Amino acid sequence: MAPTADPNRPTKPTAGEGDLTLAGVVRRFGSVAALAGIDLTVRKGELLTILGPSGSGKTTLLKVIAGFESPDEGEVYLGARKVTSAPPAKRDIGMVFQNYALFPHMTVAENIAFPLQMRKIAQADRARRIDDVLRLVDLSGLGERLPRQLSGGQQQRAALARAIVFGPRLLLLDEPFGALDRKLREQMQLEVRRLQRQLGLTALFVTHDQEEALILSDRIAVMDQGRIVQLGTPQEIYRLPVNRFVAGFIGESNLFRARVTDRGEAALENDIRFRLPEGPRPDGAEVGLLLRPERPRLLVNGERADNMFAGTVVEVIYLGETIKYRLRLDPGVELVVRWPFREASQSLRIGDRITVGWDRSDINLVAWS
Fold it and tell me: Of the residues 207, 222, 246, which one is the last residue of a structural domain?
């Protein structure tokens, strides 16, 4: 398939299309455009992740949505209501921060009560809501503790409870699990996803962790240099990245610079040729040839594939469920493959000679420039 403009790239949205709409949002700091024209609609009840490296504009975008920064151009809507100039407290948004931002001198219950007090909710109703949300986040019985008396995971649950207790229209999560260890982070990812679905919350999740984005999201917006470069489901982003930045940033990849020939092949710089998928191709164009590590397979007993190469194992990395191999193919190119432990030849060692192959349909072409 030929590299084309992303079909899921946002078009100019209309206020009221979703629970959150950004239309032409620009934010500059001096001569630098931290946000260079963001158009985005977050649908009611979905969890959309903003994913990108440091400096891509994720945090600035979140601050504009929350009301902590004002855009130089463009508008922000919650439903059909324009909130571009509204203060944070008037935006009906709950927010969870990476550092929890709990008041240390208040108990858990008092922290959760704070947004209810700001909204002048009656005390009897406050008590009921606090009990309900403590039970929802599995903190029943811990309401009288101070934040320092909780574990990191419990503090994060308390911060989440405070963000959702008043029933916000939109929930923002700013890399909320960055301070947690891996096991606890994975538990909290599943917990947030469960709560978001159970409550029907519209949520915007900001992270630089690709795996986290793939696990949590209904859709992912990939940011680079202040722009959304691709918007789509996790499957679309992983399987059909639109350019080499997205291909290299999302998951592990074998990515080669190539030129499409009129014979249905992609020629690398050293003239190694790969057979391409059927369909229209940009003959003569410079492209990125993407091959995910799980796609090649070990060929034994005379098995065949559209693309077949002999090579040598130069590195073996045991990863538990999978084994990662770095191969040096005879034509002079290196390839990373990742095979399930039970399927990979468990006796493969550095220096072994093997043959690998993959079908032409396993290859994706992405924009190189």
Answer: 246
Residue 290 to residue 335: CA distance in whole angstroms: 11
Residues 206, 62: contact at Cβ < 8 Å?
Answer: yes
Residues 220 and 285 in one domain: no
CA-CA distance, 101 to 103, in Å (whole number)? 6
Question: Measured between alpha carbons, how far is 268 from 257 in angstroms, rounded to an integer?
Answer: 6
Let me know whether 175 and 203 are in one domain: yes
Q: How many domains does the chain have?
A: 2
CB neighbours of residue 136 within 10 Å:
18
> Which residue range is the domain that position 201 belongs to?
20-246
Residue 1 forms part of a structural domain: no
Q: Which is higher by pLDDT, 242 or 100?
A: 242
* 67 contact partners, CB below 8 Å, separation of at least 6: 83, 86, 87, 88, 90, 91, 93
- Distance (Å, rounded) from C-alpha 256 to C-alpha 329? 14
| pTM for the structure as a whole | 0.88
